[in-house]
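Subject: design request, 465 residues
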């Protein structure tokens, strides 16, 4: 299925909705949009804001003075869903006092069929529900709501894409650009392929034009997004590979950085690794989620690589670029993980020397293959394992970050640091958090910082220029 651009603003539904917004909004047409979950979801949320703005809404940071509340949800772990249901519980009171407020549930949870049932039975005050591939239907659903429909919903997988031109971006110097949607990998623990559908790559031409435009507007960091960017283009006839796309984007003139996530180790080819190493604008960092270090668990997870294969990728990079920066997602407590299997993960973490790891305790997702697997490991034991992993990573990272001391690194300055007054933070090409003292006017620009100190999650230094 190829993706077509669509312009929702000019539709007849949009015109009618604009009238209703003026007529019925007590707060003058204020919308509160909150995205949970990953960067892809945040990017979708920015597009939803673009649609709402075109319908006459402006935005507020608090749902308590909004005419429209949109929760863009995440379903990846039970805790993510609990957070959303908790938020819905809080909103219930506000909605009771202000029945005219429109409450919308979107995103990954809204793409699970069980959510529709749950909303009907437990959260009848939700007005609109739409799935991750039905973003372009928001004006139509709003119109149905204004015309009296009790619960307007759409979970269809549309192939239309809302144009990025109208996306309302959170940052003025960091922009994310989805290059593909969906996932074909079906890791046995993961709900994403069920809520995001199959892989659909956007055309390289459109992506290149979008990045050129962002760079011309002054954006300094472009984050390419996809559940597995390494399989970009596989579904396009005669399309570019991800490595080719990186090389092409690297040719765009101007000082900016290209980053991307996530990369599946099974598709991390030497062609891709060479592109990362050789392209000067591509950050010298790879987020390469390993999930665990045990071959038996990797098999049960349906990950299609072994620890040895993963380490070959690590060694390839480090042989060509000493101390190349790596980060990972690691899961503890996959069904029936044994002590020995867990220790294989510790061994791998010790061997790879990640700069950073994102850790998760396995969470059962109904509908996935792992949900049917036996799991005799008690939760308390999983928590102990997590503590052991975190303790190890703290040691590894403290030692690891010392490699930057004495180096002068280029940093994209992102904001004020919590260190104290006059302190700023940014990220280096290796995606390391760098703290230093400097003027706020540097935020959103590049600066050179000489590293003098290292901790287990960041480094600090002195501004050179
Ligand atoms: N597509 C990305 C990951 C998306 S989800 C990739 O493959 O790298 C982000 C992370 O959430 C995953 O890497 C995994 O570590 C974690 N995760 C996914 N499903 C989970 C589950 N059921 N329980 C706990 N963690 C999970
Ligand atoms: Fe989930 Fe695996 Fe797809 Fe990542 S690659 S989104 S972990 S199924
Ligand atoms: Fe969550 Fe959906 Fe992203 S499940 S992690 S918001 S793709």
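Subject: RE: design request

Done. Sequence follows.
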């Amino acid at each position: 299925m190829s993706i077509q651009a669509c312009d929702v603003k000019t539709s007849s539904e949009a015109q009618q909705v604009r009238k209703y917004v003026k007529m019925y909004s007590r707060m003058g047409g204020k919308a509160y949009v909150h995205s949970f979950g990953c960067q892809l979801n945040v990017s979708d949320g920015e597009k939803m804001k673009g649609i709402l703005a075109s319908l006459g809404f402006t935005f507020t940071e608090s749902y308590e003075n909004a005419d429209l509340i949109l929760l863009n949800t995440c379903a990846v772990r039970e805790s993510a869903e609990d957070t959303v249901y908790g938020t819905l519980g809080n909103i219930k009171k506000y909605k009771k006092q202000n029945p005219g407020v429109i409450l919308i549930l979107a995103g990954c949870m809204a793409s699970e069929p069980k959510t529709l049932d749950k909303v009907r039975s437990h959260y009848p005050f939700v007005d609109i529900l739409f799935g991750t591939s039905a973003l372009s239907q928001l004006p139509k659903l709003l119109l149905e709501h204004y015309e009296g429909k009790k619960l307007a919903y759409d979970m269809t997988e549309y192939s239309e894409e809302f144009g990025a031109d109208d996306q309302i971006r959170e940052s003025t110097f960091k922009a994310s650009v989805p290059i593909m949607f969906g996932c074909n990998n079906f890791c046995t623990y993961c709900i994403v392929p069920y809520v995001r559908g199959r892989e659909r790559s956007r055309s390289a031409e459109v992506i290149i034009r979008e990045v050129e435009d962002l760079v011309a507007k002054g954006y300094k960091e472009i984050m390419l997004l996809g559940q597995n960017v390494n399989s970009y283009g596989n579904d396009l006839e005669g399309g570019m590979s991800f490595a080719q796309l990186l090389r092409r984007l690297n040719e765009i003139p101007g000082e900016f950085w290209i980053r991307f996530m996530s990369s599946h180790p099974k598709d991390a080819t030497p062609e891709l690794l060479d592109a990362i190493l050789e392209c000067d604008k591509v950050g010298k960092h790879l987020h390469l989620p390993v999930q665990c270090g045990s071959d038996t668990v990797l098999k049960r997870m349906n990950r299609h690589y072994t620890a040895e294969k993963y380490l070959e990728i690590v060694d390839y990079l480090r042989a060509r670029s000493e101390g190349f920066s790596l980060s990972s997602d690691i899961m503890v407590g996959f069904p029936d993980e044994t002590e020995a299997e867990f220790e294989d993960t510790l061994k791998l973490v010790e061997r790879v020397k990640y700069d950073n790891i994102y850790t998760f305790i396995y969470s059962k997702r109904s509908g996935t293959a792992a949900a049917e697997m036996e799991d005799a490991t008690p939760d308390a034991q999983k928590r102990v394992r997590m503590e052991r992993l975190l303790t190890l990573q703290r040691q590894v990272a403290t030692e690891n970050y010392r490699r930057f001391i004495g180096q002068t690194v280029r940093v994209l300055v992102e904001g004020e640091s919590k260190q104290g007054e006059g302190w700023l933070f940014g990220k280096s090409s290796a995606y390391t958090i760098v703290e230093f003292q400097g003027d706020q006017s540097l935020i959103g620009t590049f600066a050179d910082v000489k590293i003098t100190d290292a901790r287990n999650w960041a480094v600090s230094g002195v501004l050179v220029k």
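The two ends are 49 Å apart (CA to CA).
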